[in-house]
Design brief:
The complex is a heterodimer of chains A (340) and B (343). Chain A is an alpha/beta fold and 340 residues long. Chain A has 14 helices and 14 strands. Helices cover 38% and strands 20% of the residues of chain A. The chains are: A alpha/beta (340), B alpha/beta (343). Chains A and B meet through helix 4, helix 5 and helix 6 of A and helix 5 and helix 6 of B.
Chain lengths: 340, 343
């Protein structure tokens, strides 16, 4: 393991806390350090957030800076854009990332474009956090993975933290950034624990990380698929197959270098995402590999393992059937390595 | 200016009678100067388009000069505005440079947006202009957010959000007004009701007589005024701005006006009659204000002509300077998508 996570663990002052606690810690530290930072969203105050992320922040910082809003996503994001151009550092929580559909004009037509379109006259230092993904039985309107939409819009930065340490460090970096940053948190990760530094170290945006090194294939995974890929890699190792796992962390701007370098070494690429495959983020990763010299090093065709092209269904058996599980990753990796 | 507008009382949409006391000499000059600059600027844009010398599209505000000017007349330089696709007048009224505006429309590097935005996206931070907007109602929540920033920063700055009647049927209008009302934000919502959202008449697009009637749904004052009377607009704005500045919250002002030209270049005016357009041309806000000033003895005919001539020359100079500027360059186009980190 020559990863950032390993380095982080080694740092003094690390302790195991949950992904949700790590986000809360980042928000608290950012608000303590900079009075321009405030958070707004639905039920983030006394309620503590639908997923409990904001927790006690309302008690600590008060209702002015931990601002409960009506159910009004377009208004909330618009208010954040306006506050950002006027000198504040708003962090919006959208209760489910599916609800960003209600606010798309402000995200896509306003926040993403203002800096460029206005000739650099203004910028929008706004963060929008939202939980994505399936696995909670909430069905099709509360379970989507829409990261590719945002990554397709020039002017938005898009982050998908896969570990508690990254959830904290990437959020702190996002709050520092003078541009709109969409932070997509997988709701199944909120309770997952891991080592997180006590300090306010940033994890820079736009930097991929190698989570595990192995000679036989490269698995590129995002969000919840990173931990599933790590679990699959342990199983594969027991069967004599060693996988490298690359976590892009930031989808836009994408740091493709570590992906291309690893694929050039292993000659095999398995690209894993929860979102439906058609026109998804891993299609971009596949294209980057094909457009680089790594193409000549491939020993087998690139393989994508993605969610099925269906809305997320409700029943547990259906819900797990439509997105990649650990066993699916193991199977796909074995098939890919066998491919001569 | 002691006449009390309904703005300070409860919500109503009763049209307010024309102002009678009038602006002082200095404000009158400033108002007339701004209105003529807007008129001449729009005429120059119309001419450049007509001759094929300007690219893209345009939305002219000829006929609406009084609402833009009256709304900005009492604003401080650090007060902010958000504007619309029909926004040239707002920019000029808030103090933007004619030359940089014209340069933007002509696709020049010296334009406000370095040729990246064009007519619908002019912003000027120096004069508090947070930007025009190509999305109907797109600027209204942004104005509420800028007002939230002012409130949180402890500044006594006010934000004015311009939009048309069409925007008041968008969800963004309703969400922004509600947020502004519950948080008592220092913002004034100014609806320039020119009777049509592109071709769709307000008679058909709303089931209430006035846009201002909608204010009651959010618990804020709503007033309908004659938007072609610059003094009436200024007077009601002074009350609304004072109300916002003192922490009493937002107001909705509906300024009834009319655009003489079509919605944009594609408009064949099939949805309105020649008689209607002619009738509104007779209510020319500039001619009307000049007549008032002359009758009142504030300015002589010669002084009025001088103000007009200065505006005409200023626009002529702006066109000339903009034409001579270098065309927008694409060298750093990909690196200007994101802002650079300051810290």
């Amino acid at each position: 393991m020559t990863t950032d996570t390993a380095e982080t663990t080694a740092r003094a002052g690390s302790r195991d806390i949950s992904y949700a606690e790590a986000i809360r810690e980042a928000l608290g530290q950012a608000m303590e350090a900079d009075e321009r930072v405030f958070i707004l969203g639905e039920d983030i105050g006394v309620y503590g957030g639908a997923f409990g992320v904001t927790g006690d922040l309302h008690a600590r910082f008060g209702g002015e800076r931990v601002r409960d809003t009506p159910i009004s996503e377009l208004g909330i994001v618009g208010a954040a854009v306006g506050a950002a151009v006027a000198g504040m550092r708003p962090v919006v929580e959208i209760q489910f990332s599916d609800f960003t559909c209600q606010a798309m004009d402000q995200i896509v037509n306003q926040a993403a474009k203002i800096h460029f379109m206005l000739g650099g006259e203004l910028s929008v230092p706004m963060v929008l956090r939202a939980p994505l993904g399936s696995g909670t039985g909430a069905a099709a309107q509360h379970s989507q993975s829409l990261e590719a939409w945002f990554a397709h819009v020039p002017g938005l930065k898009v982050v998908m933290p896969a570990t508690p340490a990254d959830a904290k460090g990437l959020l702190l970096a996002a709050i520092d950034d003078p541009n709109p940053v969409i932070v997509l948190e997988h709701k199944l990760l909120y309770r997952q624990k891991g080592p997180v530094p006590e300090g306010d170290e940033r994890v820079p945006l736009g930097r991929s990380v190698v989570r595990r090194e192995g000679k036989d294939l490269t698995i590129v995974a995002t969000g919840i698929m990173v931990s599933r890929a790590l679990e699959a890699a342990d199983t594969l190792a027991g069967q004599g197959i060693e996988a490298t796992i690359v976590d892009p962390r930031t989808l836009s701007p994408l740091d493709a270098g570590p992906i291309l370098a690893s694929v050039s070494e292993t000659g095999r690429a398995l690209l894993v995402q929860e979102a439906p495959g058609h026109v998804g983020f891993m299609a971009e990763v596949s294209a980057r590999i094909c457009e680089s010299d790594a193409l000549y090093r491939l020993l087998a065709p690139i393989r994508r393992l993605c969610g099925l092209d269906v809305p997320i269904p409700y029943a547990p058996a259906l819900e797990t059937a439509v997105v990649p599980q650990v066993d699916d990753i193991v199977t796909a990796a074995r098939e890919l390595v066998k491919d001569p | 200016m002691q006449r009390s507008f309904v703005i300070s009382s409860t919500t109503t949409s009763t049209p307010v009678p024309d102002s009678s006391s009038g602006l002082d000499l200095e404000s009158s000059r400033r108002a007339l100067d701004a209105m003529w600059k807007i008129r001449r600027f729009e005429e120059a844009v119309d001419d450049l388009f007509g001759r094929g010398l300007m690219h893209g599209t345009m939305h002219l505000s000829i006929g609406q000069e009084a609402s833009a000017t009256g709304a900005c007349l009492s604003l401080r330089r650090d007060d902010q505005i958000t504007s619309t696709h029909r926004g040239h007048g707002h920019c000029i009224a808030k103090g933007a440079s004619l030359e940089r505006m014209m340069a933007e429309l002509l696709g020049k590097e010296t334009g406000y947006c370095r040729g990246r935005g064009g007519s619908m996206h002019i912003a000027d931070t120096a004069t508090g202009n947070l930007g025009a907007n190509g999305i109907v109602a797109g600027g209204i929540p942004i104005a509420a957010g800028a007002a939230l920033a002012a409130q949180m920063q402890g500044l006594d700055r006010v934000v004015v959000s311009f939009f048309g009647d069409g925007a008041t049927n968008e969800g963004a209008f309703h969400e922004a007004l509600n947020l502004a009302a519950i948080w008592r934000l220092p913002v004034v919502f100014v609806c320039e009701n020119n009777l049509y959202g592109m071709s769709f008449s307000t008679d058909l697009s709303m089931a209430v007589p006035h846009v201002a009637d909608r204010a009651s749904a959010y618990g804020m004052p709503g007033v309908t005024i004659d938007g072609n009377d610059v003094e009436a607009v200024d007077a009601v704005m002074r009350e609304a701005v004072a109300r916002a500045r003192s922490g009493e919250g937002p107001s909705l002002i509906e300024a009834e006006t009319y655009r003489w030209k079509g919605h944009s270049k594609s408009d064949k005016n099939l949805y309105r009659t020649r008689e209607e357009i002619a009738g509104w041309r007779e209510r020319d806000p500039i001619v009307r204000f000049e007549q008032t000033l002359q009758q009142r003895g504030t300015l002589t005919e010669d002084q009025l002509r001088e103000i007009r001539d200065i505006a005409t020359q200023a626009v002529r100079d702006a066109v000339q300077a903009a034409n001579q500027a270098v065309d927008a360059v694409a060298d750093d186009i990909t690196s200007s998508v994101f802002a650079e980190a300051a810290r």
